[in-house]
Design brief:
Length: 137
């Protein structure tokens, strides 16, 4: 019963956004930490791929579940971390690295804002659920 209560809210979607933002923050921090490493190529998690997959998951959630065979994977389109990593086009330096501090810091700040927004909305959802459960306004 409680799982149905949580599944009918935006909490699972927000949880995925927070988890993605945390993983991306780690990758971006690694890019900044390796700024002076000769030949280092920046890595990033594809925001577009994540958003497309999240949108598809939301659409699938609205549809009735299809019957599955016992050996089928849970999500056949699940992307591995290596597939999600890509090299954004930034400055190519003389040592063949493509790390740009301004670009990485900007991406990190945008990512942090998305993370904080998702957490704020999630906290609001939990307050609403708590008010509904305790029957207080």
């Amino acid at each position: 019963m409680l799982s149905n209560l949580f599944q009918s809210t935006t909490i699972p979607v927000l949880q995925e956004v927070v988890c993605f933002a945390q993983a991306r923050h780690t990758v971006l921090a690694g890019n900044i930490a390796n700024m002076d490493t000769p030949g280092y190529k920046v890595r990033d998690l594809s925001v577009e791929d994540f958003q497309n997959r999240l949108h598809a998951a939301i659409q699938r959630r609205r549809e009735p579940p299809a019957p599955r065979s016992p050996g089928d994977p849970e999500d056949p389109q699940e992307m591995t971390l290596a597939q999600a990593c890509r090299n954004p086009k930034t400055i190519l330096h003389h040592d063949r690295s493509n790390v740009g501090m301004e670009h990485e810091v900007t991406e990190m700040v945008k990512n942090q804002m998305e993370h904080n927004l998702a957490l704020s909305i999630m906290a609001s959802q939990f307050r609403l659920l708590q008010a509904a459960i305790s029957e207080r306004a």
